[in-house]
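ARCHIVE CARD
SHELF: 3
SLOT: left
DATA:
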Amino acid sequence: MRGASWIRGVSDHITVRSIVGRYLEHSRIYYFANGGEEEVYLASADWMPRNLYERVEVMFPLKDERLRDRVKNEILDGYLATM
């Protein structure tokens, strides 16, 4: 199902999955396949205006390939398998 922010030709190949309910506190893992050049980011908050404009939050890339693989294979894949 395409959401209200779907843009033909731009977001055709983007899939967004929420693992935990909307208002629960949880870690944030952002994974981008990026045409085979995988990117993983960790963050302290979701991208809601209240978090971006009224708090101090952190988001950073995992540059170390071993750490990216561990987060993807040991955490993210496990979460997604339960969906």
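SLOT: right
DATA:
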Amino acid sequence: MPLFARLLVISLILGLTAANQATAADEAARYNRIHFQVERSHPVENDRMQAVLSLTAEDDNAARLADHINRSMDAALKTTKARAKVEVRSGSYSTYPVYNKEKIQRWRATQELWLDSSDFAELGSLIGQLQERLQVTSINFSVSSARRAAVEDELIAQALDAFKQRAELVRKQLAAKGYRIVDVSINTGGAKPIPIMMRATAMEAASVAPPALEAGTSTVTVSVSGVVELQ
């Protein structure tokens, strides 16, 4: 066999041997790896309130309908902007025909107003005032970003401690000399808003009492998952 061919065969054999050894070592390492997850959670008082109000009207004249919606929502915006502690933005606005026997009978329009505040009394009072013209679609309570982040930081520290304690427990139960953390990931699921659905009806009285509200709590949860390698 020519020298070049022999060198090529030897090179292939050495390469296969090294690959097999690496695979065996990798399989041995994987054999000693344990994956698990721990979770820590804490109830947190909701400190933000969001409300969605809307105005829905019908008319056989589309222009007259649009004028009514626009004037009513403009008045609602001016009323809201006078409340410095309440954030406001316009929501969706849609106009569509109402058919009767495939012919347009009239027009229907709806526009939303989104409100947000940390002052529940102020926003509740405003809602009562706006209900003279608008309908309350929904009210939600949630945890503010700043408060949620602070609670999550505390829970992350607790969850990481719990992860290490669980790893030590596994090591002892399996009679291993030690362990090392191969991989770890932290998941912080944000607290979901607590909804309070309201009847979508406007009030005809000149003065409307604020709605009865209870903010309640949301649960903030942090999970830590990872892989430890026993030694």
